[in-house]
Amino acid sequence: MKLKDIKNLLPISIPFGLIYFSYKFFLKIQETQLISFEVLRYSSYAVLLIGLVVSYFFNRNRVFFTLITLLLSQYLLVDKKLYLSVVYTAICIFIPLNIIIFTYLTERGVLTSGGKSRIILIIVEIIFTAIIFWTNNQLLITLLNIKFFSLKIISLTPVPQIAILLFIASMLILIIRQIQNISPYENSFAGVIIASFIALNFKGNSLAAVVFFSMSSIILTVSIIQDLYRKAYLDELTGIPTRRALMEELMKIGNKYTVAMLDIDFFKKFNDTYGHSVGDNALKFVATMMKNVTGGGKIYRYGGEEFTIIFPGKGVDEVIPHLEKLRDKISRRGFILRGQDRPKKKPKKVKPRSNSSKRLFLTVSIGVSEKTERNKTADDVIKSADNALYRAKKKGRNCISK
């Protein structure tokens, strides 16, 4: 596995690493009692409240109301000690159910109409649980604890079977969403599902609830930070680092490096001809091609149709063959312009290409400059590379100038 792949997988694996750590911590505390339970209990509520504040401040209502669900669950199980009542069963059901519901709702702030609907949902769940608890309605209690399977492995957990099915369903939904859009933010909810199931599996053990519910808050808070980082440093359209990331990289790069400024030729005309949606596809196409640049180049979106490549530790003459290879590959590859009659879903049998789709070709111009006695600062190098880019365009485009 390449180092680049490991770096991409690291943010996604954080929730599961934290769960493993919390499980080892739980076993250690249970065995040695190094920390008093009361300290852990108050610390847990502090962590949950911090998560609520962070999610509220950054308008992450999915996280906010998931934490509200966990906070109420911990209060009822740990403080009120309602493990042996129908409350435990209701909590087992409502945690995965709420995560499923919250997953499909958009992020529109906590106090919006969407946020109010979530508040109403949680209130209805509380009322429903309270009615069953106070009336001791045996019919509803039987329905909540209904058994669908007689498998021996399922009997090993005290979690009701209907809740197990909801936990499995929520995990499958999150896995599908993760495949569609790999994101640490989405992945964190899968971590919460696992942590919550572990906590509920230790029925009657308040320490387990305290440790794993607080770890769920940590996982969700970390995911918010990761998501904010992605939005600040990664371009939403192309998925590559932004100009801000470029400037921070140049501050620590060292004394020898080369900067290449790359611009899509006639992009305004391309946009006017085919429309902005096709123009966006063109930008994504170029960014995808640039990801395979050789020579150790690091790519960034500088702005508009302009991109930047940094080659740490290399001079201009060393990087030009790599840039020439990239320029040639972009000009030859092209991308497909889909027709309006393209089906939304991929058909079982692919028909021969018709007139409804055609291949569009792009070219790029590239300007290159390195750090020298004349170009001492990063701004000087970028300006020099930008001037070289202008010369490449004057020479007729689809070429490299230094």
* CA distance, first residue to last residue: 36 Å
Helix content: 55-70%
Our estimate of the beta-strand percent is: 5-15%
Q: What is the number of domains?
A: 2
Shape call = elongated
Coarse structural class: alpha+beta
| CA radius of gyration | 27 Å
Strand line-up in the sheet with most strands: 2-3-1-6-7
Give me the strand/helix succession: HHHHHHHHHHEHHEEHEEEHE
Mean of residue pLDDT values: 87
Oligomer: single chain
Tally of individual helices: 14
Low-pLDDT segments, ≥5 res: none
In total, the number of strands is 7
**Major sheet summary line:** 5 strands, mixed
Structural features, described:
This protein has 402 residues and is an alpha+beta fold. It has helices spanning 3-32, 37-57, 61-79, 86-103, 113-135, 138-144, 161-180, 184-201, 206-233, 243-250, 267-274, 276-290, 316-333, 378-394; strands spanning 257-264, 298-303, 306-312, 335-337, 358-360, 364-370, 400-401. Strands 2-3-1-6-7 form a 5-stranded mixed beta sheet, with helices on both faces. It has a two-stranded antiparallel sheet with strand order 4-5. α3 (61-79) packs antiparallel against α4. The radius of gyration is 27 Å and the shape is elongated. The mean pLDDT is 87.
Key structural traits:
alpha+beta, Alpha-Beta Plaits, 2 domains, five-stranded mixed beta sheet, 14 helices, elongated
SSE layout:
Layout: H1 3-32, H2 37-57, H3 61-79, H4 86-103, H5 113-135, H6 138-144, H7 161-180, H8 184-201, H9 206-233, H10 243-250, E1 257-264, H11 267-274, H12 276-290, E2 298-303, E3 306-312, H13 316-333, E4 335-337, E5 358-360, E6 364-370, H14 378-394, E7 400-401
Parallel strand pairs: 6-7
Antiparallel strand pairs: 1-3, 1-6, 2-3, 4-5
Helix pairs in contact: 1-8, 1-9, 2-3, 2-9, 3-4, 3-9, 4-5, 4-7, 4-8, 7-8, 8-9, 11-12
